[in-house]
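Good morning C.,

I know you're traveling, so I'll keep this short. The sequence:
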Amino acid sequence: MSKRNRIILIAVISTLLVAAAAVALALASRKADPTPTPEPTAAPTASPEPTLTLEPEETVSASIAVGGDVVMHTGLNTEAKTETTYDYTPIFGIVTDEIASADYSVCTLVTTFDTGADYSSFPLFKSPHALADSLAGVGFDLVNTATSHAMDSYKTGLDNTLDVLDSAGLDYVGTYRTSEERDAANGITMVDINGISVAFMAYTCDTNGIPVTGFEHAVNCCTTDYLSGQSRIDYDLLAADMAAARESGADIIFVFMSWGGEFETAPSEMQNDLADYLFEQGADVIIGGHTRVPQPMEMREVTDIAGDTKTGYICYSLGNLISCQNDIYTNISAIVNIELTKGADSGKAWVSQVTYEPIYMVDLYDYGIDDYGWHYRLANLHAAIDAYDSGEPWAFMTGEIYVDMVSALEDLHGFFGAELDRQNVEEG
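The tokens, ready to paste straight into the viewer:
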């Protein structure tokens, strides 16, 4: 190789070496770079606070259907007479459904069951024993026997009345055979309804002029002047009994009262005073009777002797459930449905809802109808009126009966308030 070519070759190699060194230096520089370009990161987010969810308390509930006074006039006995006995169940008509559908049903018995068959009505009510079976048959579970007519068959008849009720499987409250029987629970009949304990109590202001001297235990009289005046309230008796009810562990205290003037459509001052006192002493429910006509009902906020505030319910009078009376308002009443609720954890019970079903005692004699096959029937007012309005009236319905029923419903709304009428409650 010539010198010139060797020089060119050396120059080329030198150039290549320089270039390779430059590349190596660049690569080394890149590897040594300590600050790579950071990747973008998401902004930090706060962790949500945990939500505390409270489970609703488990509850149990019970319903009590309440009917008014069973006033046993002779016409009802005639209506119920069969070839061999008496059957009063047809008289209750479709209202039986309202009675039987509740968990527990109660009414007031305004008659007695004497030992003989000498039946009578006003002024001394003595009825066939079959009435007790009929009351049980339509769905009643308990009857209040503390009424102004509790002594109409005197002490022997009072005792026999309780025997007959026992035979029919009916509970009762308000009258007693012996002082031991009354003192055993201070006159309280305790009933468990679906796990809710209810203390039933009952009082009357008079005994139809018949004294209970020597056996004062027989009838729960809440006045000391029960033979005349009926104006002096026996607060000692009521205080002792209500204290026993509070201490009994009862969840609900339910009190029947036979009070007020007959045919009076508004409560008297005495009724108001007694109601206030009973609520203060722990009553949750007060059901009145004796007036033969309806008196107002209401839900009210009450504070009892322990300082607890709760919802109480009172109907000053439900009027007659069944009777043959045709004085104004004596043939209208209601089946009241009282809903009770109890918390499984708290153990507290309360009146959670009250509604009523308006009813009407149909007396076909009043309309000159004497050939229909029956004369007395309880009718559900809404059902009867709706059937007539729909063009399919019940067979006994006349235009006159329809007009009277519409008027009766308006009257009941006036007494009891339309807002508690079950149909209005369900329709919202």
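Safe travels,
E.
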